[in-house]
């Protein structure tokens, strides 16, 4: 072989080696680029997932704050509405005593006693009017239908002129404060 052919052969071998080295160098480079792209996609997915979680957490937190605000407003409203409950229960004894005083048999013909009864009656009316303005209402009248939420049945007896479960006698009036029972009426019910 001639020297020229030998040089050509060597050159071809060198080109082949360079190509192999370039290919060998390109393969790790391509792999590295592919790996970086893969990592970039994973990071984007993680960022997106974290963003969704953060958004969800933000929405849940806002909802919880709204719920807490609503609950506290309801609690304050109930506190205002039922603040008088204990006082109302205590004043009911006074109302009962005034009603008992008016129910006693006495000689109402005597002017002194009549004036006393009139004064007690006016006091009772004014007291009932005052508690009514603050939401205290009496419940339980003769002839009403028995309601276990509002009335406490002491006994059941057959009674003429009354249907079953109708109140025949009110032993003690019941009262509600803004719709909430503060004392059930003690009643007798027709059987």
From TrEMBL:
PROSITE patterns registered for this protein in UniProt: GRPE
Keywords: Chaperone, Cytoplasm, Stress response
Major place of residence: cytoplasm
Presence of the UniProt keyword Cytoplasm in the record: yes
Gene3D superfamilies membership: 3.90.20.20, Head domain of nucleotide exchange factor GrpE
Spans annotated as Disordered: 1-28
SUPFAM superfamilies given in the database record: Coiled-coil domain of nucleotide exchange factor GrpE, Head domain of nucleotide exchange factor GrpE
InterPro entries listed in its UniProt record: GrpE (IPR000740), GrpE_CC (IPR013805), GrpE_head (IPR009012)
Compartment(s): Cytoplasm
Composition-biased stretches (Acidic residues): 10-19
Binding partners and assembly: Homodimer.
Function: Participates actively in the response to hyperosmotic and heat shock by preventing the aggregation of stress-denatured proteins, in association with DnaK and GrpE. It is the nucleotide exchange factor for DnaK and may function as a thermosensor. Unfolded proteins bind initially to DnaJ; upon interaction with the DnaJ-bound protein, DnaK hydrolyzes its bound ATP, resulting in the formation of a stable complex. GrpE releases ADP from DnaK; ATP binding to DnaK triggers the release of the substrate protein, thus completing the reaction cycle.
Assigned protein family: Belongs to the GrpE family.
The protein, known as: Protein GrpE
């Amino acid at each position: 072989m001639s020297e020229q052919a030998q040089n050509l052969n060597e050159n071809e071998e060198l080109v082949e080696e360079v190509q192999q080295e370039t290919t060998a160098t390109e393969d790790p480079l391509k792999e590295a680029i592919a790996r970086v792209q893969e990592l970039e996609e994973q990071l984007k997915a993680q960022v997106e997932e974290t963003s969704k979680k953060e958004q969800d957490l933000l929405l849940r937190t806002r909802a919880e704050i709204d719920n807490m605000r609503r609950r506290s407003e309801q609690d304050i409203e109930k506190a205002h509405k039922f603040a008088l409950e204990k006082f109302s229960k205590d004043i009911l004894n006074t109302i009962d005593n005034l009603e008992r005083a008016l129910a006693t048999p006495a000689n109402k013909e005597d002017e002194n006693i009549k004036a006393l009864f009139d004064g007690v009656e006016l006091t009772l009316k004014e007291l009932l009017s005052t508690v009514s303005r603050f939401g205290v209402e009496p419940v339980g009248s003769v002839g009403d239908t028995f309601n276990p939420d509002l009335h406490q049945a002491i006994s059941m007896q057959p009674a003429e002129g009354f249907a079953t479960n109708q109140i025949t006698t009110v032993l003690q009036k019941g009262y509600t404060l803004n719709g909430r029972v503060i004392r059930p009426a003690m009643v007798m019910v027709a059987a």
